[in-house]
Amino acid sequence: MPRLLIVHHTPSPHCQEMFEAVVAGATDPDIEGVEVIRRPALTVSPVEMLEADGYVLGTPANLGYLSGAMKHAFDCAYYQLLDSTRGRPFGVYIHGNEGTEGAERGLAAITTGLGWAQVAETVVVMGKPTRADVEACWNLGATVAAQLMG
């Protein structure tokens, strides 16, 4: 069964709301035959990342960059993933209270280096998520999960 790994750092209620919407989209009953695994960025292992067939990455933008937790996840796994995961589908959601450009650039550099295939537009939310933001997160989870359906 294909495996979708949602790697997230959810330190705030706004990040939690976005995360829950991504999970709801990824686990929609219309998406069949995809195992959805959720792991905090500080505890995800390189093995879990290697065993996944696709990814959703969720991070706040802290001090103009992606969270240290998300950076740590990739610092621990990058070289193991480098030649083994090329072409795997992924999506990204980012929450910020100010600029998110650094976080966007950081994740783009990491995923480009890994050769992953972005299958959905990055969802960027500033401040409290609106209904449209939550829907975009739901669509993100559903889109990446649907890419893994047999």
From TrEMBL:
A GO molecular-function annotation: oxidoreductase activity
Domain NADPH-dependent FMN reductase-like: 49-127
Name of a matching Pfam family: FMN_red
Superkingdom per UniProt: Bacteria
SUPFAM superfamilies given in the database record: Flavoproteins
Annotated protein name in UniProt: Flavodoxin
